[in-house]
What does this fold into?
Amino acid sequence: MAFLYESHRQRVLLQSGGAAQALAHEVQRRGAQRVMVIAAGTQAPTAAQITAGLPVVLRWDEVVMHVPLQVAQRARAAAGACDADLLISVGGGSSTGLAKAVALSTGLPIVSVPTTYAGSEATNVWGLTEGASKTTGVAEVVLPQCVIYDASLTTSLPVATSVASGLNALAHCIDSMWAPNRNPVADALAAEGIAAITAGLPEIVADPAGLRGRERALTAAYLAAVAFASAGSGLHHKICHVLGGRYNLPHAQTHAVILPYVLAFNGSVAHGAERRIAGALGAGSALAGIAALYEALDAPRALRQLGFPPDAVAEAAAALLPFVPPSNPRPVTVEDLRRLLAAACEGADPGVLQETVTITREPR
Ligand code: NAD
It folds into this structure.
């Protein structure tokens, strides 16, 4: 047995209703005097409320999913022009992503207040998009130095968006079980994350204004993202990354749709991972657990409903092949990818990808 696990230094606080006080404390302990607040338009009123009284020199609300380079360049220039000494991001992965893009070129520290379950706040991964091509990279400077989770800021997240975002977190957990740098620490975090999201999402659906489900989902988002940051991108993330950039698909919903298909495909050979996932879901098999969860949540099922063109299955499969991680527990052919995408496009039963295969690698 051999593994590498690297931990990342962050202060992480969860306190419902406590964001304003926690931010004031954080700004004071850092001695920050010129704060740039980054929050997507929909989150701008929330951001204004929780940063009132702080030494804010700029409020930036031009936030676009997948961080187009031109938007990042405008935000970087504005950060320089106002001589900011701290970035505070309030919002989902898109707001955090823009703060990371600014930090990448300026070195400014980030304090992140996440309002979805995307988990970007817990990773050192940045992303920038130019045309249809998204570039990602890893840099310590983009890892937020402090994360403040306040579930009361997330009760406004619509149920359908909450479900898709929570399944994005679930995908971080499940994919980390067979990602290239899979390790027992990430496995443990991921299993705990699966259990937390499986408990939290049905509570959010039943009681969208309640805090308990939201707190569980935020906790799961953090566990999931730390596992993902450690284990790296597995087959699921590679597929979603390429599809999202190439066909401009919504991030969280694409993860939600693809997850059962990759689970069916890999789970049929990665027996150890399959058992851990099933156990964390509290189900007899991982696929049965996911099916029950998706049913209870009325989760998104079909890529075509997200805007993926059905006649693009073959070209998308060919585009995906070079991105398949060599360490994937089951060898992947272009025909496998075509079948996976064709099934996901229609929302077909993921079980069609589960047939017994002769594998050339040791199952994990
Ligand atoms: P998002 O940030 O675009 O948010 C989705 C929608 O929800 C937006 O319209 C936003 O305004 C709205 N919203 C957010 N919080 C809300 C709230 N509390 N109430 C009401 N509406 C709210 O989407 P996302 O799924 O959170 O993030 C996706 C982006 O994050 C993608 O660009 C993805 O690549 C990136 N991401 C990066 C990492 C990483 O490690 N670098 C990890 C996960 C996601």
Remarks:
- The mean pLDDT is 95.
- The two ends are 12 Å apart (CA to CA).
- Strands lie at 11-14, 35-39, 56-60, 86-91, 110-114, 125-130, 133-138, 146-149.
- The domain at 11-154 is CATH 3.40.50.1970 (Rossmann fold).
